[in-house]
Structures are given as structure tokens and as C-alpha cells.
Design a protein that fits this description.
single chain, alpha+beta, Immunoglobulin-like, nine-stranded mixed beta sheet, Ig-like_fold, Ig-like_dom, immunoglobulin domain
Length: 623
């Protein structure tokens, strides 16, 4: 299309009509020009967009004569280089294998990547293989079988034959790219639990190993720490047990004497479910013994011992010995005997290490001053005999238990009053210290009377005792009072109790039986020559206590324990017997006294009131 510029004539310029026509032609010209320019711009943009992709690659229809054939080859090579991205197809894994087996650790990569970069196998911090070349002298470490040709991959597998527990750890496959690409496998070799060592810290030496020393010695109050070092996979379960050196009776008795809380633990107990036992302050009775560490896991092998028992645990232990000062107990603080009779004095001693025990006797001078003389086993006169014997368990004079230990006995073969009666003591000593026993009195006076019974005879209470005496009894003293009264309220009973002495030599000639009945008929109990006294009258429903002592030509015995009994009873009522121990009143040991008709009436009234109250409450609840 050809556009010509408009020609403006003079006629046109001159007239108004011509001027208007010229303006219109000019406007049309510029409108057409704008459309043409817009089309040209659009064509140019389309050309650019169409040719832009071909700037990065050659045209596919270029012929062999084309100048751009070389550009095609170089472009393909550049594309291949850009697609070689470092990558490892395999991911890190965890392998649990048994000892003696073979493990294959994979590290698969694309073949074109393997052609560009080297692959390293690293165990911990040590390189053990580069590509397929081993870097270690261990013949068990090898390269795995290569992948089939044409697969497009390289396996690069690390093979470890006959694995052991020492092969456990991390294995890293690392590519020599920048930055490096790597994966890490974890190898865990299962093997039975094994105890490497048992160590003890504290005591005589700062550290002792049970593989060399099977025993550690401490002093009472020392701290100690036992550690069991173990190996194995899966992680072993570790436990400590203790086989006590002292039996439970000893432990209980020792704890009672020391004020500690008594326990009921068996002889062998579990003391820890970890690999450690820590004791801040050791106690001989509680802590001494054999401590054994056991370790086991799923790989442990079951073994059968000679006695037929099976076990799947590794075991090792250590003996814990605790030195402590001798503990001395006296079963009988008072020993009653008579002239020409033998006498036995006993000290029970617990100690570690074993003590040396000696005996002493108190000597009284003319001015009443005292000193202690050590007794010697003089074979020339044979006056004393020293005996040592193991003690299973005995009862002390107060009824408490004496721990099993060793009895050290002083036997006086033939007692002579002028030389032998008096006070004795034993002394036990070891490397920790020495301990004196409480005093033991050897006397010819009667033994402490023992309560034998409390019963109702007719309608009045009757009390009975037994007294041992090597010499004839010469006198008795019986006292009673109301239970709630003070010690100053004791009242002597006259006449004396009835005494039954040994009737024949076949019986026990040292044992006397005596009894006393409160109430009527007491004139029959009065000793000859004694003035007639009004017998004591007991009040019904009142609780009383009584005590007795006896005397022979060597002196008075100790008072008996207090006997609890009740006042007289009505004839129509029954009586209940009581038992008395150590002067302590117990609900089922008190002899019930008569409450009389008034007491029964009060009881019935109270019972009726309670019944009516309960009935009213139930009725209110229902309503």
C-alpha cells in the first residue's frame, strides 16, 4: 500500500471548507501510520520468541552441509556433563548380625557417577577401601561382587567375613565429590554378655579388681563402691546380689541393740539392678557378705553346672569383709549357785576379726575399795576352765534373742563362797578395739522367783511361784498394792506363803514351790510363832499387783516380776486365769473381778440405750 502525502492547494488554504478537509486527511494519515507501526512491532516480537529456544541448541533440520553441525556435537557433550550429579542410591542402614557370619554393606551409585568420582569406605576414621582396592591388611575385608554389565549401576559393596564383636561400629561410603556425598551404615555384632572386671573402691586399698583380688576388707563406717564392667550386644542386663555373712537372727538382734529398724530380708538379696553398688557407710551385720554381679543378654549361652542347674549369665563376685569392734552380750547377768556346786558364766561375742577374750573378777579390799584381777587357767589347781563354743542362738535372761556367735565360758568347777562369790566381767579385743561385758554376779542367794500361775480358788485369787536356791530358804516376803498406787504403797502380807520344799532326792533339790491365797482361811498359812493378824480384804472390781522375794543364808533374791490379779469374786460368778509376763498388764491376762448386780444393770441399761439410738437413726434414714 502506497501512501502519498496530501497536497494542500492555495484554494484549500484560503477557504474554511478547504481547511476542514485538510485536517481530516491529516488525521487519517496518522491513524494509518500508527496501525502500520503496531503491526511491525508485533511481527518483530513474534520473530524473537520463535527464534529464542534455538539459541541454546542447534536446529534439528540442519543438513550435513550446514555450518552448525559442530555446534550440535558440542551441545550434546555439554548436556552430558551437566547431568552427572553426585548421588548414592543406597541409604544408611543398621545391621544386627551374629559373630562368625558374613555381612555385606551396600553402596550403589549410578555408573556414570562412578566414572567421574572415586568411592571410599571408612571405618570410624580409618580408610579401609578405595573403589574395589582394599586399604587394610585384614583378609576378611573384601570388595563385593560387581553389578552386571549394562545395569547402569556400580554396587561398590563392602564385605566383612567372620565378623567379631570388635567389628561393631560405623562404616561410611564416601564419594570424592565437592561437596562430598556419603552414607553411613551401623554394624552391631551380637555376642554373649561378658564380665570384664569387678572393681571395689574404698577400704584398705583404693581400688581392687576381682580378677586378681576376690576380697576387700573395710572398717565399720567406711564407704565402698562396687562396679561391674560388662560387654555384650544386645546391651546386657546387670544385677548385683548379696549373700549375707550373718544370718537374719544376728542382723535383727544387732539392729535392735543399736536402735536400727529391723528388716526381714532373706540371706541372699538383690541389692542393685545396675552395674554399681554404692554404700556410704558400711555396717558389719547389714553389709558384710559375698557380692555377685551377673550379666546376661539374648545372645548368652545356657550352661549346665555340675549340680544340674542351668544358667545363661556371666558371673563374678567379691567378698566384702568388715572389721568391727567386738559386740559382747551376757545371757545371764546373775548366776545363782551354792557352795560345792559348779557355776557357769557366759559371754556371747560377735566380732571380726576373731577376738581374744579374757576374764576378770572384782576383788574387794578390807577398806571396801575394789580392783579387777585377771583370771588365769591354772592347770596346777584346775579351779577354772575356759571354754569356747559356737552358739546357734540362745535366749537371754530377759527373754530377748542373743545373736548367733561364739560363747566364751568361764566355768568355776567348785564354788567356794569366800573366793568365788562376787562380780565378774569378760573383755573381748581385736585390732579394731576392745569391749567390756556388763557385770555378771555370781551369788549364793536364791534366784529371782518366777510366776507359775494365777487362779481362783473357791471365790478368792491364788498366786503361785517357783524359786531356785542351792541353799535352804529361810524367809519370804510377799507384797501387794492396788495397781494404780505408787511404789511407796506396797503392803506386806502376813502370815507367810505356803512353801512346798523338795520331797525327795530324786527330784530337783534346788527348786521350791510356794503359793498364797487371798481371803478366807489365811490363818492356815500363818507361820508358827507369828502373831495372829487380820488377813487383807480385797475389794471386788479392783486390780492389784503382787511381788515376791526369797532369802537364804547368802541373802535376798531379786523381787519377782509384778503379778496382776483382781479382787475377790462373787460365788455365783466364774473366774478367768491370767498370764503374767515381766510385770506388764495385758487385756487377756487380767483376772476379771466381779462387777456385781449393779454392774450388770448398768451394762444392760447402756446396751438398751445404744439399741434404741440405732433404731431411731435407721427409722429417720428410711423416712
Amino acid at each position: 500500500m502506497t501512501c502519498r502525502p496530501a497536497t494542500v492547494s492555495s484554494a484549500t488554504r484560503r477557504g474554511p471548507s478547504a481547511t476542514s478537509g485538510s485536517f481530516k486527511r491529516t488525521a487519517v494519515f496518522w491513524l494509518v501510520s500508527a496501525v502500520v507501526v503496531a503491526n511491525v512491532i508485533r511481527f518483530a516480537e513474534c520473530r524473537v520468541l520463535h527464534e529464542q529456544p534455538l539459541e541454546k541448541s542447534d536446529y534439528p533440520n540442519d543438513g550435513p552441509d550446514g555450518s552448525e553441525d559442530d555446534d550440535l556435537e558440542s551441545s550434546v557433550e555439554e548436556d552430558d556433563k551437566e547431568t552427572v550429579v553426585p548421588a548414592i542410591i543406597t541409604t544408611g542402614l543398621t545391621f544386627d548380625v551374629s559373630e562368625g557370619t558374613t555381612v555385606n554393606l551396600p553402596c550403589k551409585v549410578p555408573e556414570k557417577v562412578a566414572n567421574e568420582f572415586a568411592l571410599l569406605w571408612i571405618n570410624g576414621t580409618k580408610s579401609i577401601m578405595t573403589d574395589t582396592s582394599s586399604s587394610t591388611t585384614d583378609p576378611r575385608v573384601k570388595a563385593g561382587t560387581p553389578a552386571p554389565k549394562g545395569s547402569g549401576f556400580v554396587e561398590n559393596t563392602l564385605v566383612i567375613e567372620l565378623v567379631t564383636r570388635w567389628d561393631s561400629g560405623s562404616y561410611t561410603c564416601k564419594m570424592t565429590s565437592e561437596p562430598p556425598v556419603k552414607i553411613t551404615h551401623t554394624l552391631r555384632v551380637t555376642h554373649p554378655a561378658k564380665i570384664l572386671s569387678v572393681q571395689a573402691t574404698g577400704g584398705v586399698k583404693s581400688q581392687q579388681n576381682a580378677s586378681v583380688v576376690k576380697k576387700i576388707t573395710l572398717k565399720q563406717g567406711d564407704p565402698v563402691q562396687l562396679v561391674c564392667n560388662v560387654a555384650g550386644y544386645p546391651e546386657p542386663t546387670v544385677q548385683w546380689t548379696k549373700r549375707a555373712k550373718y544370718n537374719q537372727q544376728q542382723v535383727n538382734a544387732a539392729e535392735q541393740s543399736s536402735g536400727l529398724e529391723s528388716s526381714t530380708a532373706p540371706a541372699t538379696v538383690v541389692v542393685s539392678n545396675t552395674n554399681e553398688v554404692r554404700i556410704e557407710t558400711v555396717s558389719a551385720y547389714r553389709d558384710a557378705g559375698y557380692y555377685e554381679c551377673t550379666a546376661h543378654n539374648a545372645a548368652s549361652v545356657v550352661t549346665v553346672s555340675e549340680d544340674g542347674t542351668s544358667a545363661n549369665s556371666a558371673r563374678s563376685g567379691i567378698e566384702l569383709e568388715i572389721d568391727y569392734q567386738p559386740n559382747v552380750m551376757v545371757p545371764r547377768p546373775v548366776v545363782n549357785t551354792g557352795e560345792t556346786y559348779p557355776a557357769v558364766l557366759t559371754c556371747t561375742v560377735n566380732s571380726f576379726p576373731k577376738p581374744k577374750v579374757s576374764w576378770e573378777k572384782e576383788m574387794i579390799a578390807a577398806d571396801n575399795s575394789s580392783s579387777w584381777k585377771q583370771l588365769v587357767n591354772d592347770a596346777s589347781n584346775g579351779r577354772y576352765e575356759f571354754i569356747r563354743q559356737m552358739n546357734a542362738a540362745v535366749a537371754a535372761g530377759n527373754g530377748s534373742a542373743v545373736p548367733a556367735g561364739t560363747n566364751y565360758i568361764l566355768k568355776v568347777k567348785r564354788v567356794e563362797s569366800s573366793q568365788d562369790f562376787g562380780r565378774y566381767r569378760c573383755i573381748a579385743e581385736n585390732r579394731v578395739g576392745s569391749t567390756y561385758s556388763e557385770l555378771i554376779t555370781l551369788t549364793g542367794s536364791p534366784a529371782r522367783p518366777q510366776m507359775s500361775y494365777v487362779q481362783v480358788k473357791a471365790v478368792t485369787p491364788e498366786l503361785g511361784w517357783i524359786v531356785d536356791s542351792s541353799s535352804p530358804l529361810a524367809e519370804y516376803q510377799l507384797q501387794y498394792k492396788q495397781q494404780q498406787d505408787s511404789q511407796a504403797s506396797w503392803t506386806d502380807v502376813r502370815p507367810q506363803p505356803q512353801v512346798v520344799e523338795p520331797s525327795s532326792s530324786a527330784g530337783d533339790e534346788r527348786r521350791y514351790t510356794m503359793s498364797y491365797t487371798f481371803g478366807e482361811g489365811q490363818h492356815n498359812q500363818q507361820q508358827a510363832g507369828e502373831p495372829a493378824l487380820v488377813p487383807p480384804t480385797l475389794q471386788h472390781g479392783i486390780t492389784y499387783v503382787a511381788r515376791l522375794r526369797a532369802k537364804n543364808n547368802y541373802g535376798w533374791s531379786d523381787w519377782s516380776s509384778e503379778v496382776v490379779f483382781s479382787g475377790g469374786m462373787d460365788e455365783e460368778q466364774d473366774a478367768n486365769e491370767i498370764a503374767q509376763q515381766n510385770g506388764q498388764r495385758k487385756d487377756d491376762q487380767v483376772l476379771k473381778s466381779s462387777v456385781g448386780s449393779s454392774g450388770v444393770s448398768q451394762y444392760c441399761t447402756a446396751t438398751t440405750t445404744v439399741a434404741l439410738t440405732v433404731t431411731a437413726m435407721v427409722a429417720a434414714f428410711i423416712c
